[in-house]
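User: C-alpha cells in, sequence out, please.
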C-alpha cells in the first residue's frame, strides 16, 4: 500500500491546456480549470501525462521537489516567473515504474513539471499541496501500444490518484499561428468535425473508434500533424470504464483551431 492511500475512487480527466498564457490570464479556460479542481476534489496525488514530455522512453519524475519547467519561448516575462512548488511523490513514481516494468520504465531527475501540467494544476490546486508525478510519453510507440500501456495503471484510481492527461483534442499549431497572423478567430470545418467526432465517440464509450480515429479520419489527421497532444487523451481513456459518467466541463476553441475540450470520466468527488 502506498503512503496516505485514499479509499475513494477518483475520476479520470483529460484537459485541453492550450496556450501557456492560460496559466496567468483570467479567462473562461482558466476559470474552467479552477472549477474542475473544485468538482473533482482533492486527490492523494496527481499522475500527469503531458504532451510536452514526448521522448524515446517511459520515464517518471523522481524528485521529492520537481522543478517548474518553462518549456516555451516568446511569452511575457510574468509567465517565466510562475513557480508551482508541488511536492513529488517518489513512492508513487516507483509504483508506476513497477507497473510499467515491461516498458523499462525508470525514474529521472532531469525533468519536472512542464506547462502541460502546472498551467492546469495552478488553477485546480492553487495551494500546490497535492503531490504530483509526471509520466512521459514514449514517442516510439503507436496509439494502440500507448492505450495498452496506460491500461496497466487502472488500479491507481482506486488508490486516490487523479490521473490527468493534458494535451488538446485538436492541435494544429501551424494553422493556429497562421490565424494569429491574419487576426482570424474562425474555427475551420475540419477542426469542428474532429472535435465533434471525438466528443460523440467518447459519449458512446466507443474506445475502438477513438484509438483508431487519427488513422481513419481525414479531419483528425489534419487536427494532429504530430500525435503528442492526442496521446494524453488515450492515456485518460484507457483508465475509464464503460459505466463511467462522461462530462465535458470545458468546451470551445482557442486561437481558432485549438480545441479546449476537457473530459471527466466518473463521478465527481467534490471537497
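Assistant: Sequence out:
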Amino acid at each position: 500500500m502506498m503512503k496516505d492511500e485514499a479509499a475513494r475512487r477518483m475520476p479520470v480527466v483529460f484537459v485541453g491546456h492550450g496556450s501557456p498564457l492560460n496559466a496567468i490570464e483570467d479567462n473562461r479556460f482558466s476559470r474552467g480549470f479552477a472549477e474542475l479542481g473544485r468538482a473533482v476534489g482533492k486527490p492523494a496525488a496527481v499522475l500527469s501525462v503531458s504532451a510536452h514530455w514526448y521522448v524515446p522512453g517511459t520515464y517518471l519524475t523522481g524528485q521529492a521537489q520537481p522543478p517548474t519547467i518553462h518549456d516555451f519561448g516568446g511569452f511575457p516575462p510574468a509567465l517565466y516567473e510562475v513557480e508551482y512548488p508541488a511536492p513529488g511523490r517518489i513512492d508513487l513514481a516507483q509504483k508506476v515504474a513497477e507497473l510499467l516494468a515491461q516498458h523499462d520504465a525508470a525514474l529521472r531527475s532531469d525533468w519536472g513539471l512542464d506547462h502541460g501540467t502546472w498551467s492546469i494544476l495552478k488553477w485546480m490546486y492553487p495551494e500546490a499541496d497535492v503531490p504530483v508525478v509526471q509520466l512521459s510519453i514514449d514517442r516510439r510507440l503507436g496509439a494502440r501500444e500507448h492505450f495498452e500501456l496506460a491500461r496497466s495503471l487502472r488500479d491507481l484510481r482506486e488508490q486516490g490518484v487523479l490521473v490527468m492527461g493534458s494535451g488538446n483534442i485538436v492541435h494544429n499549431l501551424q494553422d493556429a499561428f497562421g490565424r494569429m497572423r491574419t487576426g482570424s478567430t474562425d474555427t475551420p470545418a475540419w477542426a469542428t468535425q474532429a472535435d465533434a467526432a471525438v466528443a460523440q465517440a467518447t459519449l458512446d464509450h466507443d474506445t475502438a473508434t477513438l484509438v483508431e480515429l487519427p488513422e481513419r479520419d481525414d479531419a483528425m489527421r489534419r487536427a494532429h500533424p504530430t500525435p503528442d497532444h492526442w496521446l494524453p487523451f488515450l492515456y485518460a481513456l484507457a483508465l475509464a470504464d464503460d459505466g463511467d459518467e462522461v462530462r465535458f466541463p470545458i468546451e470551445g476553441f482557442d486561437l481558432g483551431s485549438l480545441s479546449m475540450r476537457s473530459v471527466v470520466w466518473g463521478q465527481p468527488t467534490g471537497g
